[in-house]
Fold each of these.
Amino acid sequence: MCPPPAFNPNLVDFDCPACGASADLSEPRTVCPACGQPLVARYDLARIAAATTRDSLARSGTDLWRYRVVLPFAPDFPAVRLGEGGTPLLPLPRLAAELGVAALWLKEESPNPTQSFKARGLALAVNGAVAFGKTAIALPSAGNAGSAAAAYAAAAGLRCRITVPEDTPETFVIEQRGLGAEVRLVPGTISDAGKALADWAPAPEWWNVATFKEPFRLEGKKTLGYEIAEQSGWRLPESIFYPAGGGTGLVGMWRAFLELENLGWTRDPMPRLIAVQAAGCAPVVRAFEQGAERATPWADAATVASGLRVPAPFADRLILRAVRESGGTAVAVGEEEMLDAMGELAGSEGCFACPEGGATLAALRRLRASGEVSARERVVIYNTGSGLKYPEAWRAALARRGTGAGVS
Ligand SMILES: *Cc1c(COP(=O)(O)O)cnc(C)c1O
Ligand SMILES: [Zn+2]
C-alpha cells in the first residue's frame, strides 16, 4: 500500500502490541481497530539505518525534529513548530555526591513550549491531525497537556476543546483560554474529564488527542529516549526515573531504546525504567507489586502533582510491560517527600521544579537507601515541567521549609 505523501516513507504501519493487529496509513488512525488498545508506529529501521548515521543528526537542527528520520512525517511536510524538544541533560554534581551515585543528570523539560514536556507529544499529535485533514482537536487534561494542545492548535489554525478537573490550578485554565481553546471544568478526575468529552466534542469532527488515543503523541515522547542517548554520548545511563501518569514518556523512551538497538546506534545494555507515582494515586505501582498485567482504577486519587493524578491509565499494559522488560521497578512517594525533593532541586541545583520532578528525586533517594540503585550507577531523573504553574505546591513546600522540615 502506498502511504499518503504527508508521511515518512519509512513509516510502515501502526501495530497493536496487545492483539498483534496492524493498521495501515490509508485513513486517520486512533486505537486498534480490532481490540481498542493503543497503536504504535512501526518503521523500516533497516532502511533508515542504511540511509542515516547517528552522527548525521548533528546537521538536523536542535529541536526534536532532528530525529525526523524516525518520526512519522515526510521530510517536506510543513510541520507547525514552536521549538519543542532539544532540552538540556544537566549534570547534578551536588546531589550526585550527596546520594552517592557515579553520575546524576536532570532531563530538564521546562524549557519546552508552554513549559512542560507535554509539548513533545502534542506537537506530533496536532501535526498528525493536520496530516489527517482534521480541523478540530479535543482532549481531557490535568493541566499541561491542555496548554500544549492549545498552543499547537492555535499555531496550526485548528479549533481546540479541553475538559479539565475542576480543581486544576487556575494558571492552566487561564493559559489554555489565552491560547484560544474552549475549556470546560468537570467535577472529578481526568477520567471524568475524558468521559465529558464524548458529548461536548464528539468524534469524528473533534479529533481526540487524549493520551494513547492516537499514535502520534507517543512518537513525540519517544524523542526523550533519543535525546538522552545522544546527549550522554550514546552511553546509556543505567537507570531512568520517570514520573508516570498516562505513561507516554515511559513507553516512548522504551520504544526509542528498542529502535536505537535495532538501528545499531547503541550497543549498551538498556536502561532500567523506574515508574514514579504519588502515594495518593499509584495504580501502576500497585499492579507492578501484584505482578498484574493490568492496573485497576485507583479510588479517591489525590496528589498536588496533577500530572500524576491519572487513576486509570489507558496504556497500563504497555507501561507495565516497559517497566518489566527494562528490568525496572515502580515506586510511590508521599506528598511531603515530593515537596521536600522539589525544594531540594531548587535549593541545591537551581531548578524551580514541578512536584512531578520532585517525585523522581524522592524516588531515587528511596531506591538509593534500599540499595536498589547502586553507587556505580549513572542515573537520570526528570523535571517534566515548570514549578511556576504550581503555586499551591510551592506554597506548601515553602511552609515545610519554614518549619524546619525538608531542606535547610
Ligand atoms: C503529564 C505530566 C506527567 C506525566 O506524564 P505521562 O506521560 O502522562 O506519564 C508528569 N509531569 C508533568 C509535569 C506532566 O504534565
Ligand atoms: Zn489490538
Amino acid sequence: MTTITTPRIEINLGKIAHNAKSLKELYASKGIDVIGVTKVVCAAPNIADVLVKSGISILADSRLANIRKMRQAGTQAQFLLLRIPSLSQAESVVKYADMSLNSELSVIKRLSKFAMEMMTTHKVILMVDLGDLREGVMPVDVEHTVKEILELQGIEMIGLGTNLACLGGIKPDAEKMTKLSAITGDIEAKFGLTLGLISGGNSANYSWFNSTEDVGRINNLRLGESIFLGCEPLYRRPIPGLFTDAFTLVTEVIESKTKPSAPQGDVCQDAFGNTPEFADIGNIHRIIVGIGEQDVAAKAIKPRVNAEIIGASSDHLLLHSHNYIEVGKEIEFDINYSALLRLSISPYVKKVYI
Ligand SMILES: *Cc1c(COP(=O)(O)O)cnc(C)c1O
C-alpha cells in the first residue's frame, strides 16, 4: 500500500527533456527551430522550465492565462500566443505576450493601438489557411492583409505561419509547405522585405520533415504533442529515439470482484445518454478504479496491465482484468493527447514530478 494519493499523473521531467533536446536537434539538422507548446500541460512552470533548459527559447500557449502564469513563475523565455487573440483581450496580449499568431486585421489594429500606448512593439505572425480551415487568411488575401499590417505602428510583422492537421485533419505535406514558401517569396518580393520566421505547423509536420530534403523557407515549427508524448499525431506512431511514457496515469483499485459480463435487467440509457451493449462472456473479474469521465475520457487511456476498459461513468472506471488485482493496488495507464489535456486541468488529479 502506498501513501501517495491517487489518482495522479507521474511526470518524468528527464524524459521530457530528452524528447525536447532530441527534436530540437533533429529539426535543426535542416534549419528548423522549435517553439515549445505548453497548452496540453496547462503551462506547468516546472515543465516550461525543462523546455527552456533543453534549449527552447520561445514558449507558446493558446491561453493568455497560461502565459501570465509562466511569466509570474519567472520562466526565462519569449512567449507566443497561439490562439488568435480576441478583440477584448488585445490590451493584455500586448502586455503579456511578446508575439501572437493572427488572422484578423481589426484585432491587429487593436494590438497596434495598445502597443503604441505602451510604447512597445508587438510581433505578429500572420496565419495563412492552407486547407485545414481553422484559423488563417486565405492565400489570395495574404498580400492585401500584409500591406495593411505594414502600415501599423507598434506592430512588427515577423513572419507567416500555417496550421494543419487540427480541425480538418489535413496532412502537412510537401505541396502545402511549398505553397507557404512560395507565398513567403511573393510577399517578400512585393514589399521588399525579409520575413524572418516561417512557421510551417505543429507536431504533425514530422513525416513531411523526414521525407523532404529541401524544407524551402520553413524555418520554424510549434511542437507540443511530439515533445510530451514522443509520437507524431497523423498516425500516432512513436518517433524513434523518443520516450512515449513521460506521463503515467496512476489510479487505485476501489472494488475488485467476479461478476457477470453482461448487465442484468432492462437496458436503457447509461449516464451519458448512450445505450450500452455488452457481450455475455460469462463471469469476469471486474475492477473499479477511482477515476472517471470528469477527469479523463475512458477511450483516451490504456492500462499497462493485462486488462481491458469496460467503460466509465463520471467517477468510476471499470476494467475487465485477466488477473486478480486486489483493492488498494495501483493500476498504471498510458495516456494520449486528449487524456493529457483533460487530466492536466483536473484539480482531482495530483501532479507528481519525478
Ligand atoms: C496546439 C497548437 C500547436 C501544437 O500542436 P501539437 O500537435 O501539440 O504539436 C501548434 N500550433 C497551434 C496554432 C496550436 O494551436
Amino acid sequence: MLALWLGAAAPGASAQTLAQPANTVILEVSSATSAPNSGPIAQFDLAMLDALPQRETVTSTPWYDGPQTFSGPLLSDLLNTLGVQGTTVRAVAINDYAVDIPVSDLLDYPVILASRHNGNLMSVRDKGPLFVVFPFDEVPSLNNEVYYARSAWQVRHIEVLP
Ligand SMILES: Nc1nc2c(c(=O)[nH]1)N[C@H]1C(S)=C(S)[C@@H](COP(=O)(O)O)O[C@H]1N2
Ligand SMILES: [Mo]
C-alpha cells in the first residue's frame, strides 16, 4: 500500500493550532489513525475554509448546462493544514453518499472543495455547502464515470483513511 504524506507536519501536530470555528460547522475532518473516540480532528466553519488559499476552475460538468465557475480551497491544502497522513480521502455527504478518493488524485490534479458556484454560496438544494470539483475542462481525461462518482456534493465530512 502506498502511504503518502500530505505536508511536512508531524501527524496531528498542527490540529491544535487550528482556529476554533466561531460559526456553524460545515465540515468535519477525521482520521482513521486517530483514536476511535477522539471525535473529529478538525471542524471548519466557512470563514476557516475561506482563510485557506482559494482555487478556481471554470469547467463543464454533467450536472449543469455549459461551463460553470467553482471555487474554494484545494483538498490537498486542506489536508496539508491538518498534517494528516493517509492514502484515501473518503468524502461523506449529508445524504450519506460516500465515495473514496485516492490521495494520488489530490497530488495529480487541483481538486477543489468548492464552497462557491459562480461566486455564490451553494444551498443544500444546489449541491452545497461543499462540492468536490475536479477540473474536467483543464484535464479532459477526467471525464468518465470514475471521476463523476468522486464528485461528491453536499459534503459534510471528510475521513482520511490509512
Ligand atoms: N451527495 C452526492 N453526491 C454524488 C452522488 C450522490 O448520490 N450524492 N452521486 C455520485 C455519482 S455515483 C455520480 S456518477 C455523480 C452523478 O450523479 P447523477 O447521475 O445523479 O448526476 O454524482 C456523484 N455525487
Ligand atoms: Mo455514478
